[in-house]
Amino acid sequence: MSGPSTVDDYLADLPDDVRAALEQLRRTIKAAAPDTTETISYQMPTFKYRGRALVGFAAFKHHCSLFPYSRKVMILLEQELQSYDTSGKGGTIRFTTDKPLPAALIKKVVQTRIGEIDAR
After folding, report:
1. Percent of the chain predicted with pLDDT > 70
2. SS3 per residue for 7-64
3. Residues of 52-74 as b/e, b for ≥16 C-beta within 10 angstroms?
């Protein structure tokens, strides 16, 4: 099974409301982490920083998800994430198109993850 080869390909096949929400998420991530590259990893859009997966995102049938790829980030931002459905060993933050993640929270997730990568 072949998936999308670029982030634009991934987004192109989504319903309008989902595409709009994920494009806004993408812009916010780029603004918070301009020194990143976009790729497709595990058939979903992923931003890489210093060769490591920084964050990823994906659309699902009933929600969208932001993946910080770090349980530590989820623990550090536990208070800020209380009102969101979260789970997973590597961290998943679920949201819907009618209740997207606030830009300030996305930036905090991205900056926390950058700090984690830089500390390695």
Report:
1. 97
2. HHHHHHCCCHHHHHHHHHHHHHHHHHCCCCEEEEECCEEEEEECCEEEEEEEECCCCE
3. ebbbbbbbeeeebbbbbbbeebb
What are the domain boundaries of the chain? 7-114
Give Cα separations from 16 to 9, 11, 19, 61, 83 (angstroms): 14, 9, 5, 14, 25
The CATH architecture assigned to 7-114 reads Alpha-Beta Complex (3.90)
What the block records as the tokens of 8 is 């634009």
Query: 0.85 exceeded by the pTM?
Result: yes
* pLDDT digits 0-9 by tens, 90-108: 689 999 999 999 999 999 9
For residue 94, the SS3 value is strand
How long is the chain?
Answer: 120
